From TrEMBL:
Residues 426-478 form the PGM1 C-terminal domain. InterPro entries: PGM1_C. It comes from the Bacteria. This is PGM1 C-terminal domain-containing protein.
Amino acid sequence: MSYPAVVSVQSRECSPELLERLSGSTLFPERPVGASIVSVVRRGGGSLLYVTAPAMADADEQVDYFLGLLPEEREERRQALRDRVEVGSLDDDTARWLSTKLLDAGSPAAGALRERIHEFVTRERAAGADVRLDCFEPSVNLEKLAASLGVPTDQADASAIPLGTKAAGRRIFRDAQVPLVAGTDEARSVAGLAEGIADLVDSGHRRIVIKLSSTEFGAGMGNALLDLGEIAVPPGREEAVAAVAAALPAADLVDAKLTWTRYAGMITTSGVLAERWVEGDEVRSPSFQGRITEDGTVTAVSTHDQVLGGAGLTYVGSRFPADAAYRAEVLRLGLSVGARLVENGVRRGDYGVDFLAVREGTEWQILGCELNLRATGTKHGFTMATALLDTMPDAEGELVVDGSPRVYEASDAIADPSLVGLRPSALIDAVRSSPLHYDPVTRTGVVLHMLSALPTYGKFGAIGIGRDREESARLMRELRALALALVER
């Protein structure tokens, strides 16, 4: 009987300039390491070679921590599990994609790591393993690596990358009969953008979200908010377009390190569109995560309510599952989008759909927002939770353990300047010895991730698994307090 052997290269292939500006972004590929260890090695009985660049901080302590989340009493078994986890690292903290670092033909260290990967694949295949390359998103680079290894990737072909743009997402939403936010067609110039926004203004919309269309911009970092407020927009077409164009440089960019001049310069290559800013008695951002298999089958994986920062435009965390008030509709529409992706030739991989849930009185309306043809920021938390709980969502999209529900809150951005310099091993020890540590008996508690960002950036991630929303939120609050207490002593 075969077992899984996974080479994990979680390369986030957005704009290298964006990676350079985002705090700790070079460490994003490390986020799923714990989830991979628990799901592939502890639950799956497999082997894992996890690739990082730069190297993990306190790597041995992190691996031992993740392996210990599900305790193994026999010493020989613990050692056997440890032998099935390898971490292959490059001492490279530049803002290049992880795949670019790994395939750098001029780097002896990268060449040595590629050879190590080949040896891992050869050894595991000879032992009867089902070997695969685990990726975050479609990648030309990683397809080349997979071909050299003779293994498949687990994401869509790189030829499908254009389907992940903002403009393509709106087209697929329309085909899938997903209600859409009022918006413009894609433009390739500031003048074209101004014309589209003028049409939105003519329809009565004065608060506008501007979005660079390319897949290079994740987590809302290609977005800007334009509030025309009391600005006079003349009724004549040419005059209205000119007034909008004059107002555009005052747009509030989510990426605060960009200027409007630089942003405008990206429009030609990225494309841009605009949508009305959605308002109501309450507005939330639920998301759907789906999976497409080789035979074209579309499966619902999970739903979440996203936690957004930066004027509601930047992803910082999530809560599982999405609210029951609209979860069924999110599942239905998410599956419909997946079916349209299959019609467009996608035959494998993760995809995510971001929605807006708008409440007016007691009624919720679900609107399509964005399509991601890749894994999303919710995946590592979900993989960790389901692997620890040893269950998957039921037909209602809930996690149930022995008849009792489990929910969780996840964050990649538990941060404070005072945490700079704190070692991952110190936080691991503190959590292990506290009541917050994940308990495999009660199946509640906190689990850490993205720990290598602590020493330099003063931030880390975690999920808090509880019996209800109040418990999971309390766990996350108390974890933050615990971390801060370590540096206040």
